[in-house]
Amino acid sequence: MLLEDQRFLSEDIERLESAIADRIGEEPKHIRDRLNRDHQVSSFLTRIQDQSKRLLDIYHDAEGLRTKEVQAISTGDPFEEFYKHLGEIKDFHRRYPNEPVENLERVYKRKAPGEGESATAEVDNMFTGEEAFGKFLDLTTLHEDYLNLAGVKRLSYLQYLDSFDIFTPPQCPIKRPDKTTDHYFAYVGRLVAYLEDFLRRTAPLQDLDELFSNFDAAFETAWQSDSVPGWTKDTSASGIAAPTTEGTGEGIWCPDCLKEFKNDNVYKAHLSGKKHLKAAEARKTNSNTNGSSSAPNPSPVHHLKERAIAEREFRISKLASTLSSERVATRINVERKQGMTERERQMELDALFAETPSDLPAAHDSDSDSDTSEKIYNPLKLPLAWDGKPIPYWLYKLHGLGVEFPCEICGNFVYMGRRAFDKHFNEARHIYGLKCLGVTNTGLFREITGIEDALKLWEKIVRDKRVEGGKGEGVVQMEDAEGNVMPEKVYYDLQKQGLL
To answer: What is the mean pLDDT of the chain?
Structure first.
């Protein structure tokens, strides 16, 4: 029955719109709940589009079946038509007695935490532990693939995060002929696929198809105007000309070695090296073969492969700029994890996955419950780190933060740890305390924390300066026959020895 299908599709669309409104009305606090909501809304929108297409096909009635059904109901005997459809329904359920009935009122209703949300497990399996529900990028596998390419420099993971979207020299050491290899083509393909998939997983409600089509249009324009970075015609057809300034634009660029030199003497010295001579000869032979066999235009297959690689590099650059915030957060997270032990990393990962939505309603029961849930267990009174949690105990013992260093000059202030104690001698609090005691030369009072010791030392310094000044004023200078000036005592000693 087309009319029943039409009614069912209309009801399904209305239920979907109501379910979307219920989910959009609340803003989850946890990122996992937000992703769960966004993916549910995205699936609902996709189902609305599918159901709307089916409903439009019924309204268009290309075969005229809906019109015939309406005429049969309106012109014929209504009871006869009713019992006819009733017999069809009974016959259907007689053949399929265990056919489940879909209750639209409960299908799209938001489930309570106790009922179990199946989509949450889907979001959990959607991201790796390094990605932390879309907060960070996970390029460890792609970093290993990059290191296995021919002609690349050994980069750390942090350096790779800063330069994975740069494909021009001197940041990228891979030459243009080496980019047409199958390994490099597969590498950029995997990198593009990961970035696009990450963007689809973290932003399911964005119109990513339109964004990717804009990338394709921008690449077509750049390719037609010969302005794609690293794939312009002058980079491949440049002859053996004089050294030009490329790279960072500050030094001398060697087109044979694809290397920049800051010093002119170093550049001239490297011209006679074996590496430069070998690179220059290879570049010359390549230019000769290109000029003789293939003329100015390469083969169509080679041109298509270059275009495909250039298109992937261009898309990687655009995707990296779109994911710039996640890229910066990934770098900060990697630097932070480098100072953690494996046990601390595992504890942090367990804490991330242990935060379930079922824990949230208990926090809204009363203010006392929320206070106790946010209270940090710190029986050893350890200092707090940047994330508000106590630092590890081994780090506390390593820096000696349990040792107290009081300073009487600073008003009996107690410094925890040797590092803080040594640092405070150059701080404003200690310098101000010395100036209050009348001390002007504070550099000589390091490691002195008592007021009495500081006063005694300053009195001795002042007394010694006065004695030295008095001695300097009473010295008698003598001059010999050759004009040499010396103290009186030295003059008479030399005269007694017959040296004058």
So the answer is: 80
Is 71 within 8 Å of 33 (Cβ atoms)?
no
Q: Which helix (H) or strand (E) holds 37?
A: helix 31-60
End-to-end CA distance of the chain: 136
> What is the spatial distance between Cα 419 and Cα 36, in angstroms, rounded to a whole number?
47
CA distance 144 to 129: 18
CA distance 124 to 356: 11
Task: Calculate the alpha carbon distances from 233 to 273, 311, 336 in Å.
Answer: 29, 16, 43
**pLDDT tens readout for residues 208-246:** 888 888 988 988 888 888 888 878 775 544 433 334 445
Q: How far apart are CA 402 and CA 414, in angstroms?
A: 11
Query: Is the CB of residue 287 less than 8 Å from the CB of residue 235?
Result: no
Lowest mean pLDDT among 61-70, 240-249, 275-284, 478-487: 240-249
For residue 255, the 8-state DSSP code is T
pLDDT in tens, 237-289: 443 333 444 555 567 778 778 777 877 888 888 888 888 888 888 777 766 65
Task: Give the residue carrying structure tokens 């350890």.
Answer: 382
Tokens of 383: 């200092």
Distance CA 283, CA 239 (A): 9
pLDDT at 69: 77
Q: Does this model's pTM top 0.85?
A: no
Cβ-contact 42, 209 below 8 angstroms: no
Whether the CB-CB separation of 141 and 193 falls below 8 Å is answered with no
CA distance 59 to 125: 41
Among residues 79, 71, 55, the alpha carbon closest in space to that of 7 is found at 55
Hunting for tokens 């490297």 — which residue is that?
Answer: 270
* Angle between helix 78-95 and 65-75 (nearest 10): 120
Neighbours of 319 (CB within 10 A): 20
d(CA 140, CA 157): 7
CB 325 within 8 A of CB 203: no
pLDDT in tens, 410-447: 989 999 888 889 999 988 899 999 988 888 888 888 88
Contact 188, 316 (CB under 8 A): yes
Sign of CA dihedral 218, 221, 222, 223: positive
Q: What is the DSSP string of 359-389?
A: GHHHHTS-HHHHHHHH----TT-PPB-TTSS
| Residue owning tokens 């609090």 | 429
